[in-house]
Hints:
Keywords: Cytoplasm, DNA damage, DNA repair, DNA replication, DNA-binding, DNA-directed DNA polymerase, Magnesium, Metal-binding, Mutator protein, Nucleotidyltransferase, Transferase. By secondary structure, this protein is of the alpha+beta class. Among the domains are: 64 residues, MutS, DNA mismatch repair protein, domain I; 57 residues, 5' to 3' exonuclease, C-terminal subdomain (DNA polymerase, domain 1); 127 residues, Dna Ligase, domain 1, CATH 3.30.1490. The protein contains 14 helices and 13 strands. The strands form three sheets. Strands 5-6-1-7-8 form a five-stranded mixed β-sheet. Strands 9-12-10-11-13 form a five-stranded antiparallel β-sheet.
Amino acid sequence: MPTPRKILHVDMDAFYASVEQRDDPSLQGRPVVVAWRGARSVVCAASYEARRFGVRSAMPAVRAERLCPQAVFVPPDFSRYKAVSRQVREIFARHTDLIEPLSLDEAYLDVTVTHTGLPTATATAQAIRDAIREETQLTASAGVAPNKFLAKIASDWRKPDGLFVIRPHQVEAFLAPLPVGRLPGVGKVMEQRLQELHIATVADLRTMGAVELEQRFGRWGRRLHELSLGIDESPVEPERPTLQVSSEDTFERDLPLEELEPHIRRLAAKTWEGHGREVERHPGRIARTVVLKLKTSDFRILTRSLTPTEPPASEAALAQLACDLRARVALPEHTRYRLVGVGLSGFSDRDDAAAQRDLFARTDAVDIASD
C-alpha cells in the first residue's frame, strides 16, 4: 500500500482584521470591519468581535454598519497584508516546497516529506503555527489530514487559533454525520437535490452507492461517492499558473457607457501591472484574450471578450482594446453601469501562441459575448 499523504491546510484567523488590530492596539478587543465606507462598498474582512453581530466578508458595508453600529471601519491596506503573507509563506517554505496558496491568508502544504524531519504532520503543523505567532504576532488555524478537502474541513474545526487532526483510520467515521453541504462542490442547488432524495448527511450519501449516484448525476455522482468515503487524490500544486489577471471597480454613482473610458484605462493599467508580475513568475507566458466586464445598475453582469491575432503588447494597447469592446454592448443608451472590470486571460506559452498565429491570421478575431 502506498504511504498515506500528509496534508496541511493553514488558514490565518480573520487575517486582514487581525493585522489591523495588531498594528493599532486601540482596536484590540473591538469589532473591526475592514472596508471602505459607502453605499457601494463591501466588507473585506471582519474581526471575530464583529462576526458575533453577524458581519461577514463580502457583505455590503451598509448592512454591516446596521448589524454592528459600534464597529470600527478601517480601509484595507493590501500592501501590508501582502507583506505579512510573504512572511507566512517563508515559514511554510522552511518545512516543504509543496505549497499551494489559495489566497493571501490560506494554503495547502504537502508535508509527507519535510525539510525539518519533524516526526509527524501534527508536529509540523504546530511548529508552523508557533512560528507564525512568534514572528508575525498573529494566529493561524491548521487542519491535518490524508488529503486536501479533509484538511480544509479540519482547519475550520477549532477556529480561531486551533489545530485539528483527522487520521486515516478516522476518516469515514468523521465524515459520516456531516451535512452533505460540507463536501467540496456541493452547493445549495446540489444540496437541495440531494435532500429531495432524503440525503442529508454524508452517511446517507454512502447508502445510495456509487452506481446509483453515477446513474443520477453522471461522473459527478461517482465523485460524490468517493468524497463520501474521504477519497481525494488531487495533489498539492505549487504556484499554479494564473488563468486570468483582472481589476474592477464599483462607482460612487452609476455611469453611462460613454463615460467609462477613463475608468477602463485606469483599470487596464492595474491589470497590465498584474500581467507583468505573472510573466516575471512564469517567463514565456503571455495572455491572449482581453476581457471587459460590466455590471448594470440592476445588477446584470455582461462580459465582452476579444482574442486578437497579436496579443496586446503594452498597457496602452490593452486599454484601447478594452475601450473598443464597449461598441459590442448592445444595451439601450439610457443604461447605467455600477461596475467595470478589465481582464487578461487565455494565458499560454509564447511558443504556443506563435504556433497559432497563422490560424488566427486566416480568420477574423474571435469575439465572445456573454451575459
